Amino acid sequence: MTTGAPRATVRDIVHPASVAVFGASENVAKFGGRIMHYLVKHGFGGRIVPINPERATVLDRPCYARIGEAPGPVDVAILAVPPEAVVPAVAECADAGVRCCVVMTTGFAEAGAGGAARQDALVEIVRRSGLRLVGPNCMGLINPHHRLALTSSLVLDVESLLRGRVGLISQSGALMVSMYNRAHDAGIGFSACVSLGNQADVEICDVLEYMLDDAGTNAICIYVEGFRDARRFLALAEDARAREKPLVVMKAGRTDAGVRAARSHTASLAGSYAVFEAACRERGVLLTDDPDGMILAADVLGRWRARGEDGLAVLSPSGGGAAVAVDRVTEAGIRLAALQHGTKQALLEILLPPQADNPVDLGGRRDGDPIATAERAMSLLAGDAGVGAVLVALTTVPFYEDTTRALASAGLRSGKPVLFAVTPGSAADGPRRILRELGCRYYDRLDDALRVAKLWTAHHRTPPGSPSAAVRPALAADAREMLRRLPAGTLTAPEVRAVLEAYGIPVARESVAAGVEEAVAAAESLGYPVALKALCRGLVHKSDAGAVRLGLAGAGAVARAWDAIAAAVRRLPGVELEGCVVQEMAAGEAEVIVGAKRDEQFGPVLLVGWGGLLVEVLHDVQMAPAPITPQRAVVLLQGLRMWPVLSGVRGRPPLDVEQLAEIASLVSWLAADLGDRLIELDVNPIVVRAQGKGAVAVDSRATLGPLPAEVGG
Fold it and tell me: What are the pLDDT digits (tens) for 203-228?
């Protein structure tokens, strides 16, 4: 690059004034030929610079043998050359002052050691010269508003590039153009589409930052396999929420099949995708598992940006269509809107009583014009203040096209989202054409409509603005200093207990005994019955090892339990019995786990769930990045399947959720203060008593890394 020239921004890259095409030709069967064809066909207004040593001209434009021979400046060069030719070509571009290279070629870090070395060479050129690089292993980019189709994909061979307000960022190039094709067929346009491949230089967050600043982008979709900077992504996600720009993300690698050797319950339950999901949920990011659904939802979210009610109304020309749709809506966890009394009364004037509610069945029409009835029913339904959106399960009906036009026109006039799920089949070709003409979105599968509705509902349930920050609680004066004194590795129960007490977390009364006599004396002091637990550094699951005895009711029982525990520990290789913890038997109504772990990408994460010995069997957990407020902890607890047990079910009294939420918040602050030292922390079980009676931690374990000063020796 020219010395002193500023590095190209993402805006510069997607709005270039000049583009160089390596391997340019007029043969559309070749990558360079298709790229040239698309640039000309779609009316790119900037300067096009063909590069090919075997051609004098391409599409009536002078062609140059080398980029250094072409007149400058060149903003973006796109390369689809053999892998071994990429590094020299990019180096030439840097020397010629090109501001950015888009490298479509594969065979880099994704292809083994040799490819990784080539990618390292590209990164070195970027670092040395200031050149920007998109890719390698990508499919380029598309900016319909700039008439720029900088890709070789066959899906761009369309009459025109549809302009829109949805931004698309994708690590996968093939998936990006597939999503573009699906969206184009549905009439959905984009503000820009950027494929990033290996993210050797320009990465997801760079493009996301641009799209957040771009006034022409209302909603953003991201397909991601891995973030280069996950915490930067979360910060940008908070920015998206504050700016009211919906962010819809699909992440590959949602399972943890390769993670088998979890040491603690928390580590076992808090898989990498589960942590990602929790971090996204805190910031209003909408997650999906379907690329088409991602685009379809972003289109609706970007088109109808104003937040309102999250209730859905269902309408169908068929009683069967209405019944199926309502069942599916309910199963998807989408709330059906409760219609206002005035709406129901007005519907009764045109429909028979069973049909004059949500769902609306147009088949129960009173005498009158069916088209006028359909239009009036839609106007009433969409006009109800409690209805946020309308789902139309469109089945075949007399006057099919006229009915469709009436429903769509009335729905669009309401200013609310109206989602048409069209019954498959050629009979619906006419209604589909009408919906396209009116600019009303439709879906050929109810599943697609429900995916959109579910994401739309989730967005409307997320409060706008940034989430409330947790406020540090008052702690013991030496609480944080105590953390610095903790050793690395697996802590003993007394070490964890001391920290929990310093953070204000109530723990069951206990005493450490070095021998049987001390254990009996401690039991007498605490009062029977008691529990006896082995004290062994490095022993994680004491119950599984036979190193815990509960409900001991006398001195003889304590002595026999000590002998049994000692025998069990002797059978464990590398584990020594340092003593036993004698603990009061804490009674309560429920057992809950509160744990934390440090995620490599997202930092400390809190987990709450149904605890005790069956915690990993029940797998009833909720997570959030630490720290959290007690109020946020209550929301997490309400997300558990077992929440009714905590809130009171079948005549049982509600439990002390307030105290439990306070404990969860305190544990989250402990996790946050441990920071990068935290590996895993379990407080399990926490015995929860009736409302007002408190909750108490019965057992805990923790594994820590070294202090920062100790890292690296």
Answer: 999 999 999 999 999 999 999 988 88
